[in-house]
Amino acid sequence: MSSSMDLLKNYSDESESDDAEQSVMNECLTDSGLKNSISQTESQSTVNFFGFNDEPEEENYEIPSKRSKQYKMVSIDSEMQVEIPDSEFWRNFIPPENVQDFSKQVERGAEVKVHHSQKYRGKRQRTQECQQYPHHQEYYQKRERNDSNDRSTPASHRDGRDLTGEPYCSVQNSSMSCESQTQRQLFYVHSKISPHLTKCNTHNKCPQRIERELEDNKQTVNRVMWNYPPYCHLFLSASMDGSIRIWNIWTQLAPCVKHLSVHKRAVKDAVWSRDGRHILSCSFDKTAKWIDVEKGIVVSSFGQSSFITSCKLHPNDPHLSITGGHNVINCWDSRSPSSPCRVYTYKNSIGQIQDLLFNRDGDIFFSTGNEISRDSSDRNIMAWDFRSTSVLSNQIYQERYSCTRLKLHPTSGHFLAQSHGNYIAIFSVNKPFKMNKAKRLEGHKLSGYSVGFDISPDGSLVLSGDSSGQVFCYDFQTGRIINKIQTGLDIAMDVSFNSVLPSAAVICGWNGKIQVLN
């Protein structure tokens, strides 16, 4: 070994030739046994002795937010101590007095730093960053979960609504249902309705297919009606089982959002108020009820001595309403429900009132009864003065058929009547209330059932039910049949157009089924 060191000294002092240098190094390495541990490249003329000239290895860079998680707490003898990793980053670290609070601050600070730095980055850049630093993925996921105020809200409900736009009700205890914890919100602007609220002159189209079928009712459904804007994602159904149901089919939850059992017998008719938050209903229990839908309570109840088969609200005064019974029509004020404020009667029998209809000003209303006899053709449809309770005309419909429904045309000065003569007649809404004998909408059949119809919001289409279960779509201008929709119902009892959606309609059947057409 001493001889080899002498050779090295001679090499460094005298700097001999390359051949002498190579021979000296080989002899040195052979004597020391380290020939395999030293690498010499052909391009370098210097000696890499014991690895002193090797390039240093790159340190693995750690993001501060990740290294902050290495701050650990260890409990020894019920005293909180700090375990500091042996690294350059923590060498000058001084532990704080309150370890628990500091650990929370470290985690929160790292989270906020990543949150603010990556908040406005694009999706592609974020994906590349997550591939390079996988631990950033959990910060993104945690940030998305915290966007909602309620941590129990699913990712699809972060804005407080479900995928269909319905407000999502959070549940603190997962073992309890949504309905039992919080009441479902009914009155809001649905995401399916909001784009159509600002549109003007929407052209309605005839429905072509069945979008959804509901079978919650056990008995015949007498009436269906869409709500007014902006809550026209809801519609009601009045059933023979004495219940009124509120439906919303564009939701991931149960479509029946409200079940109102306020009547003891079959509900014959029900209408929405203009504000869309109340319902006026009438029943065979000889009462009419003014219902707060959101609370599910009866605000006012009106009672009379006969069955109430029709009810309508005044178009200008929300406190006034009229109900039709046997040979009598009563006007009620919801502020004093004990007795009617006006009573409308006729000297002869007019039978059971089938339907009532106000004109646009509310000073005149029309009624239709079910009285059928040889000399009753002058009392089928009658016009009444709302204030004086006098009869304006009883010679409107001269044919010996009773009418089941009355509808006011939205754009022209006419109203339409569904006749048991298997057609829809057209009348003038102004005096002398003449019937248009040149045009009628015929082709469907009633077969003695109280089949309803409806007019589209733009006034171009008329939908009518049928005793065979079909839905007939008529062109109001020409009176021709545009389409016949096979619904599969035994009897199509009633139909209603949506006031905002251009081709949405709902129908109900004798067997209790409800279908939404689109």
SSE layout:
Layout: H1 2-14, H2 18-32, H3 64-67, E1 72-76, E2 79-83, H4 99-118, H5 123-132, H6 136-145, H7 178-181, H8 194-197, E3 210-214, E4 221-226, E5 235-239, E6 244-247, E7 256-260, E8 267-272, E9 278-283, E10 287-292, E11 297-303, E12 310-313, E13 320-324, E14 329-333, E15 342-344, E16 353-358, E17 364-369, E18 381-385, E19 391-393, E20 403-408, E21 414-419, E22 423-428, E23 441-442, E24 453-455, E25 461-464, E26 470-475, E27 481-486, E28 492-497, E29 505-509, E30 514-517
Antiparallel strand pairs: 1-2, 3-30, 4-5, 5-6, 6-7, 8-9, 9-10, 10-11, 12-13, 13-14, 14-15, 16-17, 17-18, 18-19, 20-21, 21-22, 22-23, 24-25, 25-26, 26-27, 28-29, 29-30
Helix pairs in contact: 1-2
Task: Give me some keywords for this one.
Methylamine Dehydrogenase, Chain H, 518 residues, single chain, 4-stranded antiparallel sheet, 29% strand, disordered N terminus, alpha+beta, 3 domains
